[in-house]
């Protein structure tokens, strides 16, 4: 566990101990006739900010707001226990389809509420739905793609041998591939270890390859089939995935046989220290990159191109893993108090500043303008594609961690020369079908299939 994560967990533990005393202090200004809000939060790193918002809202409105945060790794067990109590949470967080399926019976439909109508189009598209009913409010948008160092790429572009004149010339996969291969060829002259960061296969880093990079073949197959869900995939664009994975294998600082020995911290350092020009990852990587050898103004993000027809019409991939839900079993007074509190968080100056600037979320509500965004240059780079009229690649739901683990094993065997590519294809296609079948058996429901919409 990293020092940063340890500090966050320790801080969360301290916050959890002091939570109830803070709530009690705020309750002196509370009016019991106005209902109350009990928020069970899953993110330990934002406990302090949430508690301050709760206390300030109580002081301002007289509505009691209590925030409890589960300790790391215990959220689902805590939520299950708390929802069974008479004083259950009036709102809680949902992350991913599996959590939604488990707790859907506790969630109130929100599509007719004022706060749901404040979501932007992508926010609404990523709300968990059953039929025409929407049950969650996404509150944190993140993006992932191919991060790049503009300074390195532009210095390369000045060389006589360069295949581009500036970083702005990289507008498709063919150009990106040519640049990476040429930079690798001239890496010594450029002072680089390699062109692109290692596609590490240590457990700390594999999510980039099996949770994110696989979303691209999935998205475009859904596009072709005009659907948002199926249990039967063809794997149409897995050859494109292979081409990008091979490009990373052949042009990174690490021998392919050593990929399992490289961690997330290792590959983050390769980019942060200026040893490579490209780094597939998401906006969250900024916390590891900043204050090293890459200036904020030199950070850019390309979409996750891999040569799929039509991909140039889309920007980086978006992911919405965090949503709020309202407890359907709460009293009408408490439900309204909860919806009012959420609306205040996403519309008041104090709430917006806390969510975007202090917690670092890009919040998918229309109340957030350009000035209400995180101070993260990667987020700025990703959001710029929307201003060009390019929709994000949507991160459609994947079935399970087991599905990802099976693909990781196949990638490892392939990279080390102990297996062929067909094992990865089988893990992707056959594993998709079998894992969803298991989910339906265990969870009792599957995502709904609707007409494809990029939003």
From TrEMBL:
Keyword Calcium belongs to the record: no
Where does the UniProt annotation place the signal sequence?
1-23
What SUPFAM superfamilies does the entry give? Periplasmic binding protein-like II
UniProt entry keywords in alphabetical sequence: Signal
Q: Per its UniProt record, what Pfam families does this chain match?
A: SBP_bac_8 (PF13416)
Q: Which domain of life is it from?
A: Bacteria
- Determine if Signal is one of this entry's keywords: yes
Name by which UniProt lists this protein: Carbohydrate ABC transporter substrate-binding protein
